[in-house]
Amino acid sequence: MKKILKLALVATAAIAALGAQAQDYPAKDKTVTLVVPFTAGGPTDRVARDLAEALRKPLGANVVVDNTAGAGSSIGAARVARATPDGYTLLLNHIGMSTMPALYRKLSFSVPNDFEYLGMVNDVPMTLIARPNIPANNMKELTAWIGQNKGKINLGNAGLGAASHLCGLMFQNAMQVEMTTVPYKGTAPAITDLIGGQIDLLCDQTTNTTSQIEGKKVKAFAVTTSKRLTTPALKDLPTLAESGLKNFEVTIWHGLYAPKGTPADVTKKINDALKVALKDPDFIKKQEALGAVVVTDKRVEPAEHKKFVQAEIDKWGAVIKAAGTYAD
């Protein structure tokens, strides 16, 4: 009986402590760590650093970015899932949150169940680009060239589970053509080989491709959004859907997460700060420069964010299963 009473007192004390944390959050002497599950310098890292800066004032705390890369973002995500649920360790991740359940046979966490969803941040379009000397100048000519070279085409990507990998899978499915997939350790080496002519095609985020397109170092053929983009360097590119690939739409998005069990008062404070950050003119300007669109719709609400990610899990699970692509 005494043991049960002691356990009950400990539990009560823990609950009271969490309540106090929620009321005092964020403490003046504590820093909020924003975990990025990718290496520094990449597109998600750039989004995270811009967001960290925009969050500091409305959140009332210093926000630092910590890169924990590896295994298609699952290592960084696992770190946050295991973190103390007090609001001081957060995760910024992209579409990888919706593909990990299908790509990895063994995950140490559950994407739907081990996180508090805090709201979406942005949407990033993608572009289909090719080596500069490819003998095609528009989607009609590219489609014909692909048809004439079945079994000979090299399609690069930035690694298993990367945005370029997912877009490549969907492109092959839509074209009904199997290409030789060439995975790289990141986007930079993939683009370097594309420019050098070692690979033929790459589908990647505007955050990575816009400057290459502007510099005419690669050929650009289409965007993966439902509507054409307004970015000066991309505004003349057709969508893949209008080029004949019906319902082809791939957008890379970023969302903010906390460990499951983070007090509701804390998650509300973070969500409130996020909503302010997403309206920050400087943050919006920086995202536009990356070719990204800041989220302004209902997905900024935690419940809608979670609903959206679940729909993406279902969508990409079917694509990955059809391709037979898995990691241990």
TrEMBL record:
Residues 1-22 form the signal peptide. It comes from the Bacteria. InterPro entries: BUG (IPR005064), Bug_dom1 (IPR042100). The keyword Nucleus does not apply. Keywords: Signal. Pfam families: TctC. The keyword Signal applies. Belongs to the UPF0065 (bug) family. This is ABC transporter substrate-binding protein. It comes from Acidovorax carolinensis.
